[in-house]
Amino acid sequence: MSAIAISIYAIVTIWLLLTLICQHSVWQQPFVKWDFFHLLPKWTFFAPNPGVRDYHLVARSVLGSSKGPWRGCDFSGDRGRLCWLWNPNKRAKKVVNDAVQSLKIIGRQADIGSEGLPFTLPYILLLHVASRSMANEDASLIQFAVIESHGHSVRDLEASFISRLHAL
Known about the structure:
5 helices
């Protein structure tokens, strides 16, 4: 084995060891201040604050004065056998999830208020998804809600947002 190959193996081994050491916050500080080129990665799987809630979009149709039952909106499509490898339908769920989180953030802003919320992009997107899922209903109005769930063995459900009635 040549000296160049031994040098490359040594550099890669040292880099791997330093990378593993720097994953623990106690040992991270001494190495990070000397890492000028940011060659030591920090793997924060699931981000610094992982999501602990699931969001479910439900909708109901209204015909005259009778309101139908709340039903879940199916927006992700069927799961194929290879969904673990390639699942573009997962993007729809991600878009709805991001819209719900944006709606919660926008709803807390004082300048928007509950009157301005139906004119925001996340609200319109969620209304679109809900109305598409209720397209076969014989109704004149639609209402959607966001249900949050958390927990593992026992799921706690909470309605975090209920929209006004909208014409189909």
